[in-house]
């Protein structure tokens, strides 16, 4: 959407118009329809302004988003706009943008804090998600705005076996599947794996590898519980204990599959010899880039397993990590697998 003024515009209207123009530069919505309004929509939104709509054949690409030009001849006082009209416009933006708009005028402040606006930033199934919360009393539900930002912090679901949160910039959903929700080969045999509690984990239990030759970890999630038309990245959340052995000898195979589309690669869970790892990656340049673990803000390590596009179709996403060639390995601590929005698709 591009605003251009006709005649003299007030300072507030200029600030408002250019702010709205900047919002059209947002292109995180993969595959969604462009932000556009019909003549009737515009008249409802701006009942006191003179509207000039440019013909549809003037649509042009603008930073990956189609832009429709129209002009508004504005009154001096922007506060004449109805609050619900402003809330409707702001619902096409993002939570951070809505907070910025609250500083433009008193009408914008009221609209930017309204339940009507903030409810529009929630996923359609948010009530079902809240019904699965382990500790719902920890949420601030005094307003939809407060509830939104409460959900931007991890919320345990399904008896504490899954973590959920909203992205504070986009409202998109992310999940962490606990180790208990994963399929880990031999995890029920205490000779190979042990389940224990660690204070730094968000879950009640984590899985620690004692000794195994066949390392295989699998997880799955349905696309219907994710945000549609969004690129997601999949990460194994893990740590390496001081009793580690065999994990640095060979790279693990990782894959993420949605329907018939499969993305695969190789990763090192542990690299003691950095030069050795770099050398092996050079020798295997024809294969996928070999990933390594990186440190998270919560103190754990994560390693990327792959990424996928969550479309509108109902599909199952399967993720796997496997290493079966080296005889014995141990010392891997698995907290879970995270599926979160990926804004810089590689």
Automatic annotation (TrEMBL):
SMART domains, sorted: FBOX
Family annotation (Pfam families): F-box (PF00646), PP2 (PF14299)
Cited InterPro entries: F-box-like_dom_sf, F-box_dom, PP2-like
Coiled coil: none
Ranges annotated as spanning the membrane: none
Annotated ranges, domain F-box: 75-121
Protein name per its UniProtKB record: F-box domain-containing protein
């Amino acid at each position: 959407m591009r605003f251009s003024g006709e005649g003299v515009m007030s300072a507030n209207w200029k600030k408002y118009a250019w702010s709205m123009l900047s919002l059209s530069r947002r292109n995180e919505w993969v595959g969604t329809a462009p932000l556009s309004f019909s003549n009737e929509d515009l008249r409802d939104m701006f009942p006191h302004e003179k509207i000039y709509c440019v013909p549809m054949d003037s649509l042009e690409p603008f930073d990956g988003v189609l832009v429709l030009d129209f002009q508004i001849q504005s009154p001096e006082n922007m506060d004449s706009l109805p609050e619900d009209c402003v809330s409707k416009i702001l619902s096409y933006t993002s939570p951070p943008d809505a907070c910025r708009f609250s500083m433009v005028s008193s009408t914008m402040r009221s609209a930017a804090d309204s339940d009507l606006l903030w409810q529009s930033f929630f996923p359609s199934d948010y009530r079902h998600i809240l019904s699965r919360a382990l500790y719902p009393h920890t949420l601030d539900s005094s307003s939809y705005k407060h509830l939104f930002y409460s959900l931007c912090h991890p919320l345990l679901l399904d008896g504490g076996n899954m973590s959920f949160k909203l992205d504070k910039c986009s409202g998109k959903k992310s999940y962490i599947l606990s180790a208990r929700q994963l399929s880990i080969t031999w995890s029920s045999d205490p000779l190979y794996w042990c389940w224990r509690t660690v204070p730094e984990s968000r879950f009640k239990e984590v899985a620690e590898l004692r000794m195994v030759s066949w390392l295989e970890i699998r997880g799955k999630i349905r696309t219907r519980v994710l945000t549609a038309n969004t690129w997601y990245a999949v990460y194994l959340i893990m740590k390496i204990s001081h009793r580690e052995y065999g994990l640095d000898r060979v790279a693990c195979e990782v894959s993420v599959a949605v329907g018939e589309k499969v993305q695969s690669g190789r990763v090192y869970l542990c690299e003691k010899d950095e030069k050795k790892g770099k050398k092996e990656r050079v020798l295997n340049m024809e294969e996928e880039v070999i990933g390594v673990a990186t440190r998270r803000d919560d103190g754990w390590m994560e390693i990327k397993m792959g990424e996928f596009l969550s479309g509108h179709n109902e599909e199952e996403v399967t993720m796997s990590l496997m290493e079966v060639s080296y005889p014995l390995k141990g010392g891997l601590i698995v907290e879970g697998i995270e599926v979160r929005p990926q804004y810089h698709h590689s």
